[in-house]
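Hey team,

Filing this mostly as a record. A colleague (T.K.) asked me to run one chain through the structure pipeline before their review meeting, and I want the input and output archived in the tracker in case anyone asks later how it was produced. No errors, nothing strange. Just documentation.

Input sequence:
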Amino acid sequence: MCKSRQSNFELLRILAILMVVMGHFIRQSGLLESEAGTNGSINIFFGSGGRIAVNVFLLIGSWFMVDSVFRPAKALKLYLETAFYCIPITILLACLGMAGSTQNIIQGLLPFFGRPVWFASAYISLILLTPFLNMAFLLPFKKQSFLIGALFVLYCIVSTIPCFSNIDYIADFSWFCVLYLTVGWLKKNNLISKVNVSKWGYLLMSILIYIGLCLCVTIPFLNWTANYWLDNIRSLPNLLCAFCLFVFFLKTDIGAIRPINFLARSAFAVYIIHQIPAFREIEWKTICRAESLSGASATTYALSILGVATSILIVVTLIDTLRIALFSVVESRFKKGMDK
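Output structure:
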């Protein structure tokens, strides 16, 4: 399974989950508020890509789903994976008196309610809706284009205008459907290849957009708008940054590299485990010792943030390898029992 996956997409998954973990580490541990100067700039650069990474994950998943056969088992596996980590870890921490608030316990035992692991529930819901969304691809090209254009204006263009509305779950989930339809429209009509831009041009655009947004965060009268665009997955700057990065990796064929594929297959588990409500404070303050970074030199500070994200990726990958093996054994025995 690891060998057959295209490692360009898997490498992008790794980059995206590192962006998510670094963003959560900086924002949820208090580092974002406690550090100023050079370290504050490092916080902005390393901590602002998490919501862009959401669009990256969605672009990757949609790219393959629009051509795949609908399999309810895929949604079930992701549901079981989420519950497998959230519920036992929450129960264990509650028994040890380390779960924090009652809200943490409830959200851990009911992981699909609220926003702690919102991406999991939204993505699973998207999978279940794909048979209905795929009907849009049966429309003539002109009608497809009108539909995508109308949705793009209603969701992306409108959301790019800074406002004070909350970025809520329903808006995020409906965006998943819009972006899925957009990816299907682009792929099925071979539109990306018709744009005469090199892969390096796409990479340069993605980098420039991201650096530009990060610089705007440091400018007082642009700070709110830049943060709004970075945090809102429906905003045009956020989407363009993610899309250009995605197309760069789409156009970069590196074959199948086993270590990359091995790390990338547990990206979903990394997201789940590091965002379990009862575990977050222990994770950032006790295990990762975020407070010890206060006042560290810029080099130490930056390397520590990268080290935390990489360590979480590696440790969870090893844990998730055991889960995959366990699920494989259970599935095999279940099939044998059904055959008898």
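Quick notes for T.K.: Residues 7-339 form one domain. Residues 56 and 242 are 5 Å apart (CA to CA).
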